[in-house]
Input
Amino acid sequence: MSQPTTQTSALSVAHPHLPQTTEPRPSVQPLDLDWALDVAVNTSAVERRCATLPGRRSVKKDYQAAWLLKAITLIDLTTLAGDDTAGRVRRLCAKARQPVRPDLLDRLGMPGVTVGAVCVYHDMVETAVAALAGSGIPVAAVSTGFPAGLSPLDTRIEEIRRSVAAGAAEIDIVISRRHVLTGNWQALYDEMVAFREACGDAHVKAILATGELGTLRNVARASRICMLAGADFIKTSTGKEGVNATLPVSLTMIRAIRDYHARTGYRIGYKPAGGISKAKDALTYLALLREELGRRWLEPDLFRFGASSLLGDIERQLEHHVTGAYSAGFRHAMA
Amino acid sequence: MTIRDIFDTLDYGPSPESETEAKAFLDAHDRRFGHFLNGSFTAPGAQMFATAAPARGQHLADVTLGSAADVDAAVAAARRAFPKWSKLPGHQRARHLYALARLLQKHARLFAVLESLDNGKPIRESRDIDIPLAQRHFYFHAGLAQLMGAEMPDRAPLGVCGQIIPWNFPLLMLAWKIAPALAAGNTVVLKPAEYTPLTALLFGQICREAGLPKGVVNIITGDGSTGAALAAHPDVDKVAFTGSTEVGRRIREATAGQGKALTLELGGKSPYIVFEDADLDSAVEGLVDAIWFNQGQVCCAGSRLLVQEGIADEFHARLKTRMAKLRAGDSLDKSIDIGAVVDPVQLKTIADMVAANTEGETHHAPIALPQTGCFYPPTLITGLSPSARLMQEEIFGPVLVSTTFRTPDEAVQLANNTRYGLAATVWSESINLALDVAPKLKAGVVWVNATNLFDAAAGFGGVRESGFGREGGWEGLLAYTRPTTATKPLKPVAAYPAPADPAPADPIDRTAKLYMGGKQARPDGGYSAPVWGPRGALLGHVSLGNRKDIRNAVEAAAKAQPGWAKAPAHLRAQILYYMAENLAARSRDFTDRLRAMTGAPAATAEAEVEASIARLFTYAAWADKLDGAAKGVPLRGLALALHEPVGLIGALCPDEAPLLGLVSVIAPAMAMGNAIVAVPGQPFPLAATDFIQVLETSDVPGGVVNLVTGAHAELAPTLAAHLELDSVWSFSSSDLSRAIETAASGNLKRTWVNHGRTRDWTSPAGEGRAFLEAATAIKTVWVPYGE
Output
């Protein structure tokens, strides 16, 4: 496929992870309900594919180290807690700049690895932007009445505007689950279009809260509608639902991304969030993306892990790779 | 490659499984194996042959070429072990099977690595599928051994089982054979495939570790000649074979008339049907498990893709995209989908078949193949017509052929347009469509929205030229048992001879005609024969049917059977009751007829008529009571065992019970939805021809029951060889079992013959489950669910 002309904005120069630096930014498409709703997802079959995948692909030794380093660059290092403070967020940002001990990175021949982004609540955006100045690491803000998304629509939109004004380069919005559960697809689409517009140049990740959508078919439909409505990324979960990212949900969403790419030529990003805490799980997700979407998607402009504890496990695995001895958590700097 | 390079490419890299322990096992035997016979390994034999790792072209070990004398010794060992083993309480056999299951589990990785080395299959498959399923088979059958005494009190083990297994799932097929045989109390001699003997030999070692009594399991390695010697061995009571249809046919012929029980699990060209409302991505992924599982070397591989025309282009495009992601490589690499084909000979067969095809478009997956070893690329051939050779013949390799259909009916027609009938796959999101199509497919197993699901609790096996018998579940155990009823040699029953000075015929006697398609018909040959009473009275003439009458009768039956099978069981029951009513109304006539023909005392003749009425009641009762089952498989979903009619049955009726014998044969066939061509007992045929009037007055649809009188010896070979009949039964007192079993090999129809032994038609042995089982085939329908 020929690459359409790339528009370069001031934002994308500052933040090379953003999609618009390498891809034309997806534009809002008309709501085609015939296409969006006509989707078959066979749950048992999807589960079987996911269950067998870890047995079909494994990476070992240097390959595993390289894949895990790649995974680090795909992490949205996240803190979304009621007790977040400026100090806590500055620590997290320091960890984002230096996610792995420098001596380990040197021995792996990979100095300078950073995470993909730092993800915080609106109030912490300015702190995070300041703490990350000069690093090239973007700040993502969760928004729109995160996590439930039940505040008034105008305040949700205003929240986006303020976060963008505060320096957030990425906005993680939550959709109104009730629109999916009641089949009000037009409302879902309209809301997403409004969120996208409010984001301006900041790129927007649509959180579907898949654990609350009931069926994989609903996940597929919501994915398609959010993509039509201009989402740059689709994301599984807030991390606050009872069930967060799972492989079957991920397979359903990335197949929707594949269909959308085939239909429009746009590559939409994917972000599983919540519940991915082991290095081995991260490798499985990367393999799933590689198999179902291809190598291109395994870059920070098209894939992120929403995770807080994953990094710690990867650090331990990397030290094991370097030294041959199993590692301990306290040997690695905390966030 | 530095880590930074890999960071950019994100290649998978090599991920080898260790082969240290497998090598140690081979080295411990100096890489030279004898047989596992009578509890220990024999010294390597005079003649040896090599087994190799096809992924590497690397020699693994030499094994002994089993001679006829070796087979004799193994069968003798099994025979010696049989009395004690068969008399062990079920619980004791259960403990042995349990021990085998546990040991298979403890040595799981060793078995997996050895299997992948010897066969070439990906370690993922042996580790995650073959070996766990083999363990599960032994655990499940430990349970059947425990329960058999209580649940099957009137069944006994058969004796010594000769078992011959293929190279595609060496250990799993061993488990499918040995576990039920031992559970039922048999002893076994098993011959693994020439290409893949190693895991069977390791299993021999496990048997020793488990403390299995000597001689209960014997493993004889060898080639086709070893297998032939085993199958034909006079002291083998049962032959179980999994392999090609061609070899299965030879075994059918070689064992004909020997009185051996036989189960055959043969080839297939299984349809994989994708309807337009399916989850297409999942259906594509299903094909990876269908035709690229084990390099397509799977008897039930979904090798014939039938896709609805409107989505065909889209589906093929998605499939090609998926094919490009498959990874081929060394069988011990943990990141591959495609391993090696088992042997260079097999590789050449596949390549030659594909090269000879001139139709359609051939697409090879654009993926890297190892430079050495037996590798063939995953291949899709689209645009083939049903007449293309590759649409009809089993390739047994990673080659998928495809054609399109327009409607569900056409999908069924195309699916059934094959000599085989092992498995079928249906993809649709509509439960109505999927469950409507599943029963219409000629197959022993149907998977809905899934493929290649297996479990010990669910029966597996085919129809048509895919063989007969089921493996797994209670139905599989049944195939390793026999009824405990005692039988005696059956003496030929002769007609009464013509008197020296016959009386002239009654000028207005009734001419007994043939009955087919609901009409009485004169015999094609235009011959009839007199029927004489015991005192020389001329009772009438009976038509002498010939081969063309058989042909016509089968044609009529084939026309009637689909509708009859579809009729509600309640209706079939009503018709059988109606037959009983009409027979009862004419019981005096039939009593007189029986007395006149056989000279039996009045009470005996009356009793036969009464028993015939009762028998019709029995099968009217059974018509709606042979329940299927939902099997306890480890799956969120249903695995349904459905009793389906066999289809068209040809039957030679007993000579010694002219009326009861006829009724005993046609009634169970009718009750289960079959159509039947029956040849009435030869010496006393007039009760059967009188019975035509009962059929005519009882609303029996034309063609469901067809009667062709005549000489059993003349008609039996035609019936047995007829390629449209699905089964042939013989209770004739003529010595025909061998001829029938031999001729039945043509389309591998099921046979049920008496081998010259009696059956007491007036006792419980004359009716019931044995007849119902012969009149039905179990279809296992897998329906995973979940939204």
Q: What stands out?
A: Chain A touches chain B through 37 residues (CB under 8 Å). Residues 23-332 of chain A form a domain with the TIM Barrel fold (CATH 3.20.20.70).
